[in-house]
Structure formats: structure tokens, C-alpha cells
Design goal:
3-stranded mixed beta sheet; Hypothetical protein af1432; 3-stranded antiparallel beta sheet; 14 helices; Alpha-Beta Plaits; 7% strand; 8 strands; 3 domains; single chain; mainly alpha
Amino acid sequence: MEPVFVIALSTGLLALGFVLGWVISNRTAQSRLDRAEASVEQMLEDARKEAETEKRTALLEARDLIHQERVQAAEALEDRKKKMEGKEEVLNHQSHELNRRADLLNQKFGQVEELEQQLVQQQDEISVKELELKAMLEAQNTRLERIAALTRQQAKRELIENMEIEAQREAAWRVKEIREEAQAKAHEEAREIIASAIQRLAVNYTVESTVTKVGLPAEDMKGRIIGREGRNIRSFEMCTGVDIIVDDTPKAVMLSGFDPVRRAVAKIALDQLIIDGRIHPGRIEEVVEKCEENMHDLIRQAGEEAVFNMGVPGLHDRLIECLGRLQFQSSYGQNVLNHSKEVAFLAGMMATHLGLDAQLAKRAGLLHDIGKSLNHEFEGTHGQNGADLAKKYGEDETVINAIEVLHNEAEPASPIAVLVESADAISKARPGARRAVLENYVRRLENLEQTAQKIEGVDEVYVVQAGQEVRVIANSDLISDEDIQRLAAKITDRLTEIMTYPGQVRVTVIREIREINFAR
């Protein structure tokens, strides 16, 4: 009984334990399920809250964006409204202006119609008056024929002769006035062009001669230049071809030579020898040889500076070198390169005022004396040599013609040649540009007076303003007021034919009548 009871008891306990375990397990599972459901509820609640928050945020952003769009649309609409108002105002103004102009045109049309009516009326009145005047003239002519005992043809012939004489006088005075007015305008314009060019030019003139002065630091340097028994001075003169003049001039010696390039080489060499202090035949030969080599560079540099300063590009190297040689040449005391640059500047300025090619005018002016740079090995005049040189190196035909015209080798083929010729005359005739001999100057003035004095109707002649003006006192018994113009033209033509002078000579003819009486 006991084992069965034990087994039954064990079985019952086991069943009870199983039931209790199932109950406990079921409650635990239920508890977990409740917690899971609570957690899910909480998550759903949180999700709903978050979704609600995002929804509110999106709504706010959408409302803000809609507000901004409305503001922008309102601003754009306001701007467009303002523009439309502005355009409307302009259109209203234009419409008002058009209406005003239309009113003015209507008024003018009315005035024109009134004037046309008045003109028609005046024409009718004039026609009536012409008929009346014609009748009066017929009656007057008939009376004059009876009074003067002249036929109509005789009276008409006499009237025509009187009218011809009067017309000739009026025509002479009118021709004189027109000619004087045209000459005044032409002279004024030419004077303005030339004065404008000259005022903008500043060229320094250095009077060149055959002697160059070289300064010495001390008087005893003369003895060192001469050397023992004159060997230094003889060596220097033999190497350079230039004479050294040592006289009583304090702290200076003179270099005498016809060739300006040789004289320039000698001056540079002597300056270097004085600075170096070593003066002996060997050193002299070395320095002179080096200076001769450097002279080519100096000539080239002078030519390049002239071309650059005048703004004349594209010149051949040979022409540039020839321009540089002009730096060391002079004509009547005027430096040839400075003279060429001045002619180029004046020609360019005048060409600019006249609407011509200023660049070509400056080029022709700069090269007009290029033939003077060639040595004696070239035959012919320097004008022809210069034209040949320019033609050889591809210069324009206008430039070649200007070179020939300036040296009387050809006639002007372009206005630029005339401008260059005028600029050359201005440069030569400027005060201080060239040295003049007093005797030649006085002789020229005397010739001017004698030439004008030989013309019939001239009483006295005075040359004033350094030969630039000839004042003529006409004989009032032989020359009338109407003949003064012809007398002035005759004197001008005579001076032009037989005289040669720089620039121009002004001819002034004076005629006066004096009546003297005495009161007692």
C-alpha cells in the first residue's frame, strides 16, 4: 500500500507542480504580453506625437513659403504697377507734346494760308503798280525827249554809258573787297596753322663751326698734351686727322678740323686721355682706335633717338645711320639733324591741321636732307643723292618727291611736298636759326627798294621789319584809289619774278591827298 500511495502521491504532486508551473508560466507570458502591448501603445503614441509635430512644422513652413511668395508677388506687382504708371506718364507727356505740336502746326498752316493770301494780294497790287509805273515812264520819256531834244535811242545810249562807268567803279571796289577778304582769311588760317606748329616746337640750336673747345683740369695739362719735343701732339693729329691748337686760352685747347665726325672722335679721345692721365703715342693710338669703333654706335644711337622722338617707324638701318651722321654736320651754323627734326615736326603739324597724312609728312621732313650725310664718294647734288638713297631703301614716292622738290630737282607732286618745302623755309628763316652776313642783308634790302622804285606811279619806297614788308607811297596824281589794287599786284609780281628771299614780303601801298590852306 505504501509504494502505491507514494507513487500516487508523487503523481499528484507532479501533476500539481505541472499545473502550478503552467499557471505561473501562463501568468508570466501574460505579463510579458501586457508589457509588450504597453510598449507598443507607447511607441504608437510617440509616433503619433512626432507625426503631429512634423505635420505642424510642415504646415508652418508651407504657410511661411506661401507668405513669402505672396510678398514677392505683391512686390513684383507693385514694381510693374510703378513701371506702368511711369510709361503711362511718359505716354501722356508725349501725347500732350504731340497735341501741342499739332496745334502749332495748325497755327502755322493758318499763318501760311494768310501769308499766301497776302502774297497774292501784293502780287496783284504790284502788277497794277507796274502798269502804272510803265505808263508813267512812257509819259516821262516823252517829256524828256521834248525837253532835251534827244531821241530815245540817244538818251538810252548816254544812260547806258553812264551806267557802265558806274558799274566798273563798283565792280573794282567789289573785287578789291573780295580779294582782301579772301587774302585775309587765307593769311589768318595759314598764320594760325604755322603759329600753332611753331609754338609747340622747342629746338635748341647750337652753332657749329670747324673748331671744338676741350676743357682742361689744369694749365700744365697743355704741356703733357704736347709731349716731349711735340711727339704726343703729332701722334694725336696723325691718328685723328684733326689739328690741336694750343694758345693762351686758360684751361682749354682747340680742335680744328673740317670733318665734324673726325672732330667728334678727337674730342672724345682727348677727354678720355685727360681723364686717364697716361698720354703717350702708344696710348693715343689705342684710345683713338677705340673711339673710332664707338663712333659708329654713337651715330646709330643718334639716328635711333631721332626716329623714336619723331615717331617715324619702319626706316631702313642705312637711313637711320645716315640720320645719325647728320648730328655731326651743320649748315650755315644750324645743326642739320635738329633742322631735319624741326622740319618734320612743322610739316606734321601743318598736315594735321589740313587733314593730310601727318605721319607721311613727318617722314618726308625728317629725310629731306638725308643726302648731306653722304661723303664725297657719291657724285651729284645732295638732293638727288638723297632721293636716290630713299628710293633704294623703299621709301614712298611722296617722300622721294619731297626730297627732290626741296632741292629744285622736281616739281611738287603732292600737298605734302609743298608743306615740307614751307616747313624747311620756316626753319631756315627763324631768328637765330642761321647766321647771316650783314653785307648780304643790307644788299637784299637795297634791292627790294630799287625794284619797287622802278615801277611807274611810285613816289617813295621804305623797307621795314627786317625786310619782311615794303611800304610804297603812291603818286596821287598818277594813281587813283581804284588803281591801288593793281599797283600792289604789279609790285608783288615784280618782286616775285626777280627777288629771292626767305618766307614772304608784305607789300603795302599808301595813297593820300593833302590840301593845305591858311586862315588869316
